[in-house]
Amino acid sequence: MKKQLLILVSLVGLLHLSAFSQTALFEQEVRQISSDLDSLGWESGSTIFTGSSTIRMWKTLQASFPDQNILNTGFGGSKASDLETHLFPLVIRLEPSRVFIYEGDNDIWSDVPVAEILTSLDNIVNRLQLIDPKTEIFLIGAKPSPSRWEKKANYAIFNQKLQEYGKAKEGVEFIDTWKALTDAEGNPRPKLFLEDQLHLNEKGYVIWTEIFRPYFK
Fold first, then answer.
1. Which of 47, 69, 111, 123 has a C-alpha 20 to 30 A away from that of 90?
2. How many helical (H) and strand (E) elements, i.e. helices and strands, does the chain have?
3. Within 20-79, where are the H helices?
4. Rounded Cα–Cα distance for residues 72 and 184 (Å)
């Protein structure tokens, strides 16, 4: 039954991608990521981290969890709707057992309504669970980037709604990354970010590794 569903979703995914082959954002990057994965080889049942540049730039991800089979399919600048569009090549076809998703950061900065973000994420979750209800899905909360601090309230609302969704949706868990990256006064810690004050530096990813470590015991 799972194979039949996978074939069906695969065909739908291919048709969907074909319709947007000339205009879909990130098409070339997604193709390159898929090609690189196929060249290196991959196994079904792996753990996938996907989402925007915060995932793509986590170069030490596999090294941080050496006993795990981890695939990084993040693509820079993406929004939740972009992952929804490219879900088949980046996630579905790889038949993962666990999926960690970081989307919403760029959406909020681009003034995408929270309800619209959650709709895309819910569509993603439903597609994954349709193929395999046992797939573990983790939605990663937005980080407190200093360069985007002017929209702190918007990010707080998004994280709260994402947490509520994780509690209400079976098979889905919310992971908070905000608190660990802020100081005692609740402000972001610039020393954990690159010069652009948007992306995490090595120290920031060390903290992220500790956040995610309990999920790999």
1. 111
2. 10, 5
3. 27-40, 53-56, 61-64
4. 32
Given a contact cutoff of 8 angstroms between Cβ atoms, the answer to whether 40 and 62 are in contact is no
CA–CA dist 142, 69 (Å, integer)? 25
Cα 50 from Cα 176, distance rounded (Å): 16
Q: What is the CATH number of the domain that holds 198?
A: 3.40.50.1110
The Cα–Cα gap between 28 and 216 comes to: 32
Q: Which residues pair with 138 in a beta bridge?
A: 100, 173
Q: At what angle do helices 2-19 and 114-131 cross, to 10 degrees?
A: 140
| Backbone φ, ψ for residue 188 (5° rounding) | -65, 155
Q: DSSP letter for 60, please.
A: T
Q: Region 141-146: what's the mean pLDDT?
A: 98
Domain that holds residue 40: 2-216
pLDDT digits (tens, 9 = 90+) for 74-100: 999 999 999 999 999 999 999 999 999
How many domains, in total, are found in the chain?
Answer: 1
